[in-house]
Automatic annotation (TrEMBL):
Protein name: SusF/SusE family outer membrane protein
InterPro entries: SusE
Annotated Gene Ontology cellular component terms: outer membrane
Alphabetical list of Pfam families matching this protein: SusE
GO molecular function: starch binding
Domain called SusE outer membrane protein: residue spans: 23-131
Organism of origin: Chryseolinea soli
Length: 353
């Protein structure tokens, strides 16, 4: 019996040795000079324009896989740089093991402006490539694809400054209200003390400044005229027409949330708290499934709803629509009426705690 097993054992050992050699030979055939990938989408000559409306859209990039001759995971890095820089300092759009990637246009837009430092709202000549590698070795780089993309950034609207005694009569550091049409400016400003003020067309006293005409609701461009005055310090809404030289001022004693999602339903507002440092209003409260809007002074003369009822963060506009709260819970609701940065709009956030 023992004599019969020896030949079998020898055969098994020989088989294992042969298999081991075959595996070693398989590992050794990785081709370090594999054919580089080719970008098949987005193609040479692509022209894209990013707008406010398309920032949530997806742009798909595709390329063919690199064959290194063995079964191994290949890493692909999608890079973008300004034309003519030879990828001296490219931005990385994506890193993946797949042969395609879908990117949100808003994310591309942010990288173009913040990282690549291209000029917003102007077509930029760009170069695109894909780098393939295995464990950061054996690089294979695709041919460069030349494209053009116009990134989007909200243009800052025309502005009126509100210098006054409450801030040292310094137009350069004064709060602003912004244009809502050709000659009409609107905005909210907190005036904590020294209630006299003026409107200026520039952050200085060298251009037009608008003062008190001595007729209620009317302005004058006489630079030597007195400033306007407010009855008490507080948070005010200003509306100015520089063509008709008219103005309207409303004291906002409180902002509140209202709607059948709120404790007061549609009958009474739940008050929000003003944060002077952040220039925002907010409230944390329990909400239920239903609708939510914002209104001033527990009335309907000044009220806002969402541009999109299903968005938990977005732009506030004058509308009958309301934010849709899908489920009961504790929420923090905030509004920012400063228009101090892009998109230069009244905005809100609703966050479930």
């Amino acid at each position: 019996m023992k004599n019969k097993m020896k030949p079998i054992s020898i055969l098994v050992l020989a088989f294992l040795l042969v298999m081991g050699c075959e595996k070693d030979e398989t590992k050794a055939v990785l081709n370090p000079n594999a054919t580089p990938p080719q970008i098949t989408e987005v193609k040479e000559g692509y022209v894209g324009v990013i707008t406010e409306e398309t920032t949530t859209d997806t742009l798909v990039f595709e390329w063919n896989k690199v064959d290194y001759g063995v079964s191994t995971e290949v890493s692909y890095v999608l890079e973008l740089d300004s034309a003519g820089r030879n990828f001296a300092a490219p931005i990385v759009l994506a890193t993946t093991a797949l042969d395609s990637v879908g990117l949100i246009l808003g994310d591309i837009n942010t990288k173009l402006i913040d990282q690549l430092k291209v000029t917003p709202n102007v077509a930029s000549s760009l170069e695109l490539r894909v780098r393939a590698s295995v464990n950061s070795k054996f690089p294979a780089v695709s041919p460069v694809v030349k494209i053009k993309i116009t990134p989007w950034k909200a243009a800052k609207p025309a502005t009126l400054w509100l210098p006054g005694g409450y801030q040292g009569w310094n137009p350069g550091n004064a709060p602003v209200i912004v244009a809502v049409s050709d000659f009409v400016f609107e905005g909210y400003v907190y005036i904590g003390s020294g209630t006299a003020f003026k409107f200026t067309s520039s952050p200085d006293w060298d251009h037009i400044n608008y003062g008190d005409s001595k007729t209620p609701g009317k302005l004058t461009t006489d630079g030597l005229a007195d400033g306007l005055s407010l009855p008490v310090p507080g948070y005010y809404k200003f509306k100015v027409d520089t063509d008709q030289l008219t103005y309207q001022i409303d004291l906002i004693q409180t902002w509140g949330v209202v709607g059948d999602a709120t404790p007061g339903a549609w009958a009474s507002s739940t008050a929000m708290t003003y944060n002077q440092a952040k220039d925002t209003w907010s409230v944390t409260l329990n909400l239920k499934n239903g609708a939510l809007k914002f209104r001033a002074n527990d009335g309907w003369d000044i009220n806002y709803g969402p541009a999109n009822s299903n968005d938990f963060a977005g732009t506030l506009i004058q509308t009958d629509a309301a934010i849709s709260i899908p489920e009961e819970g504790n929420y923090t609701v905030t509004i920012d009426l400063s228009k101090s940065k892009a998109p230069y709009a009244y905005t809100y956030t609703v966050k479930k705690n």
